[in-house]
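Second attempt. The first submission of Tetratricopeptide repeat protein had a stray character pasted in from the spreadsheet, which I only caught after the job came back as garbage. Lesson logged: always re-copy from the clean sequence file. Corrected sequence (459 aa) follows.
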Amino acid sequence: MAPPHQSPSPRPNVKFRQLRGQLSPGEFAAAVRRAAREIGEHVSCDARYVGRVESGEIRCPNYAYERVFRHMFPGREPADMGFAPRESVRGRGARKKGSAPSDPTESPAESRTPGTAERSTESNEESDVLRRAFMTSGPAALAAASLGGPAPAGPGHRRAGEAEARAVEQAVRRIRLLDDRHGADGLYRRAARPLQAAYDLLDAETRRRSVADRLHRGAGELAISVGWLAHDSGRFTDARSHYAEALATARVAGDAGLEAHAFCNMSFLARDAGRPREAVRAAQAAQQAGRALGSHRLMSLLALREAGGLAGMGDRAAAEEALLRARTLFAHGADEDDPEWMSFFGEAELEFLEAQCWSVLGDWRRAVEHARCAVALQDPHFARNIALYTSQLAGDLARSGAPDAAAAAGERALGHLDQVRSARISSMLATTGRMLRRHAADPAVASFLTRHETTARAV
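This time the job returned cleanly.
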């Protein structure tokens, strides 16, 4: 009798280990889950899965994980991440539906429970259906979500279940993703319809409290997302109304996480609207609501919101204390208690928000230093943030007396405006342009001013 086949020992995936960088396996797994939520996928990634990939036990990720990894590391193919070609992995196609998976492309959740692979496939297919139902691509992929289906016949004539709760959650994620990539101006008006539909669902009949809670949380998060679109496109009154609506929803549902998020954005809005004391009070209320959630990253962001308000009040000592607290909290790292909406808050955003504080305080050297770091650290996949951070850098350079460098940064920011529509960014660049006009004899400055005027006319 022939000896049993011995599988070769797995070869460690060195390339994937390098992509993890300084993050622990648990921190990297949390980053994978957040990235999945950004694109509407669901993966149950944990430290064990990361270890199996790095050890070579998982030679090729399943399709859901592959989409997430491509999103995390744009421009890289699976081979660039150290994975084997899918067709080379043994056993594919040999497994029957419902049998225990043996395929090394399966995730831990799928490999533990027979039949879960089919449910995962169904979930991915449903995810695609939801995307098509709630988002339709326009010329710049900026069309907004619509919670489809016929309108209810009247009060009490509609039921809501898992599918409706999931629909609202998908709409929130999709709007956030498009805002990250393209900015708010093209999205805001189109986002009113899904928001209205989400709040209509709160009057629908639900059989389970868990579904009702998800609907309230989803509607509140959608209100905040739409409020942010208004905020970023300069519609401050509309933004204030949407944030207040989200706060009321949080209070009705008794949802501390949603309440902290609403107050966080209200603080940000108050700072931008020139009401620094209100910004401080809202940030402190957010910290009170969020303290029990166990997320150091959340508390770090809220400390930064407080610092922004304190800087606006001219209280340098208190602002510095809040900035130090924010960095100390941030250093604890990411964890599973971090809210889903905080996927934007990485080291680049930390540097950007600190740059804004120093700028308001008039310390241009520190502002430039932190703005440079923000630009260098930001994932180039998100054009909006690159444009935002570069615009901040341009303004700080202009104020610090470096017109050539400011003009160069301003030109780089203008280069992103064919992809990004944001009143905030446009306003920042217009301010930089006004500061640089007295240096118009400088060829670099003249080039920026000409290009800025051309771009402004085209918008």
